[in-house]
Amino acid sequence: MPKATLTINHEAGLHARPLSLFVKKVNEFDAEVQVKNITTGKGPVNGASPLNLLLLAVLNGHQIEIETTGNQADSLLSALEELVKNNFGEE
Known about the structure:
Oligomer: single chain
Shape: globular
Largest sheet: 4 strands, antiparallel
CATH architecture: 2-Layer Sandwich
Number of domains: 1
Helix content: 25-40%
Distance between the termini: 31 Å
CATH class: Alpha Beta
């Protein structure tokens, strides 16, 4: 099970637009993802569920751990790492 720890550097945290982009990316792959807010200890939750992700209350500067499983687990992990590292497409 591929796993990564990432820091959210978006002013809104993992909320609204970033959250919707995260879920959209998850749904592009034949894989599942569990997300945990390392900073607060909340989770893990299903990364394909917007409501569950909101309940993690991930704020700017928080660290999350993502763990993927399934046929395209490695590809999904790479895509999510890229999305977060590129600040969800914002400057």
